[in-house]
Amino acid sequence: MAASETIGISAFKARCAVIFDRLARRELEQVIITRRGRPVAVLTPPKPAAEAVRDIYGFMRGSVTIPEGFDLTEPVLDEPLDAAEGILHR
Description:
Structural class: alpha+beta
Largest sheet: 3 strands, mixed
InterPro entries: YefM-like_sf
Strand content: 15-25%
Distance between the termini: 66 Å
Radius of gyration: 27 Å
Family: Belongs to the phD/YefM antitoxin family.
CATH class of the domain at 1-58: Alpha Beta
Order of helices and strands: EHEEH
Protein name: Prevent-host-death protein
């Protein structure tokens, strides 16, 4: 199981390449970087590509509802558009 590690900012600067490699290999779940004992940043490995795409596409699924009996193919405007009459600017 991946572990969490807390490291001071000076030690992180000295070993950042090693820490990034461990994150990439999923040896670490997160690295908490501290300054004077207080957390200032949390590093985590990126999500796998398939999971990242799944989170992005369809994230608003279910957030839009269409009222019962609403016809999406029916024209919205009752009056003709200006462009249909050759008017480009008003």
